[in-house]
Structure formats: structure tokens, C-alpha cells
Amino acid sequence: MKRYVMNMGSGLQGLRLQEVARPVPGPSEVLVRVRAVSLNFREISILVHGRYPLPVKPDVVAVAAGVGEVVEAGAGVDRLRPGERVVASIFPRWLDGPFRGEVIDQLGGSLDGMLSEYVCLPQQALVPAPSHLSDEEAATLPCAGLTAWHAVTAAGAMGGHETVLTLGSGPVSLFALQLAKALGAKVIATTSDDGKAARLRALGADHVVNYRAQPEWGDQVRVLTEGVGVDRVVEVAGASLAQSLRATRLGGHVSLVGTRGGPAQVDVAAIFGAGATVRPIAVGSRMQLEAMAEAVARHHLHPVIDRVFPFGQAPEAFAHYLSGANFGNVVIRLHP
Questions:
Q1: 209: phi then psi, degrees, rounded to nearest 5
Q2: Overall fold of domain 2-145+283-333
Q3: pTM, whole model, 2 decimals?
Q4: How confident is residue 335, by pLDDT bands cut at 50, 70 and 90?
Q5: Is residue 159 predicted with pLDDT exceeding 90?
Q6: Domain ranges in the chain?
Q7: In angstroms, rounded to a whole number, what is the distance separating the alpha carbons of residues 268 and 274?
Q8: What CATH fold (topology level) applies to the domain 155-280?
């Protein structure tokens, strides 16, 4: 079988194709024929930027999120059968509860990832993929989808009167917009592009703010909420945290998903003055993955796919994601 491996900070040229023997599932493992994977900023952080907060082993099989079909079961497997289509929790040992050091092992990091024709995975990490989704759509659930779900629900069950702020048009932000609308919230989205603004409205955004035209966009968000501020923010950039705090109501919640926009320069007084909770989000547990998949199925949601690349063009897929031109998820297709 073939697979792609990568190393910390090796650059796009460091994504290398290998040919190795097909693995054999051990006790409580299943062999999965991978159909599709989706790229996320974590892959760029590891491969291109050479910085990532969790351990990354040398020559790790790339990409954390994917979907596949169970083709063989090891001894003791009782949750799954050959032929089932599944997605894998990125943290295979994080089944439920808070994120802890003992469950830190991560696909595409300290553990081999999904950009491989076949993978062996523990049965406890796997969740059935919603039947209405294509393989390309299902591949986006374990990272972008679950991160968005965790970010949107981190402050507890959402009431229909709440307002959620999403930033930009990356995979997590678009998922958060769709999930928040499905849960009954109003959504304010930001973008720097009027064409993307129209697409955000088509996905259900109640208001769209152009942050390039309005650099102090936090004030505009307050205007749109009659001076109150939003209840929840899905903060994906890091560098925009000061404006996100400005946009958040007293007692609101900011889910800090990442630092794609670079280091945040925020005065501690800004956090204190906002009176909001700022909470880092680490994707999610298998139980959260199950809850998100159930919500996607119940509301018949379809993730936004920007572009699909064949397996042999994986480096081109990474380059496209790195360009920042994508509106939604970039997917690599392995098997038909």
C-alpha cells in the first residue's frame, strides 16, 4: 500500500510518498480502507511552520481526519463489522470527559495518521459516518466538524435567543456557522471579501461584517447586537482576540480554536474588562464526535467542500490549503 509521511518543519517538499506492507489488525483493532481525508491547519502548522503544541513523531503518516470502510477485524472486536463506514476520533484514547495528559496521543502527530491507503485503528476510536454524507463530506467531521461542535457547545446547551460570532471562511468557521444555525442561534460572520460575504449569507449568516473595511469590527458587532455583544465566539485566528473580546457580551464565552493569524497581542485588562470566559479548544472526545455526527444527521447538514484532490496530488492539496484561497474544506480522495 501507499502512504504519505511528513516531519516537523520539513516544508511542502517534505511530504513524501512511501510504499509499505499493508498492516494487520491486532486485538481490538480494525483494518480500515481509507476513502478520503480532509486537511486542517494543524497539518500546515506541523509540516510548514514547524510548530505544534503536541508531540509529533518522525516520519509520521500525515493528516488526522478521514473516513474509511472496515475491511478486517482483529480479535475481540465487537463494536464494528466489515463493510461499515467509519470516522476516527483524532485522540483515540479520549473517550469522554475533560482533555487530560494521559489521552494526548493524536492521529497525525504522536500516532500515524490517515493519509494512507489502509490504517489499523482501535475500535474504541471509531464512530459510524452519517449515511447521507459523501465520503468527501464525512472526512471533514473528525477535525473541523468536531472542533466547531466543541467550540459552539463549550458553554453548555444553546438557547434559541443566543448569538454566535464566527470568523472567516475556513473549515471550522463554516462548520460553526452551520451548527449554530441548526441549534437555533443567530450568527454574525466576518470576512474580508464581499463575494465570500454572499456565500456566508447563503449558508445562513444573519449578518456579515467586512473586517478589512471595518478594522474595529468588534464595535460593529456590538451595533448589530444593540450594544449587548454576542454570547459565543469561535475564535480561530488568535491575533483577532482583542476584537473578539470587544464583540462579546459581559459573561459571554470565547472558544479559542487556534492561532492561525499569528500571536495575539491582548492586554490582560482587555480580558478582565470583557468579563468573558476564554477557553482553548482541543478538538474533542469520541463522545463529542458521536454527538456531533448525530446532530449532522438529524439536521441533514452538508459540510462545505472547497476542492477535492486525488491521492497522487496530495502535495498540491497541501499547497492549495496553504494559499488560504479555500472556502471550506480541502479533501484528498484515496479510494473510490
A1: -115, 130
A2: Quinone Oxidoreductase; Chain A, domain 1 (3.90.180)
A3: 0.95
A4: confident
A5: no
A6: 2-145+283-333, 155-280
A7: 10
A8: Rossmann fold (3.40.50)
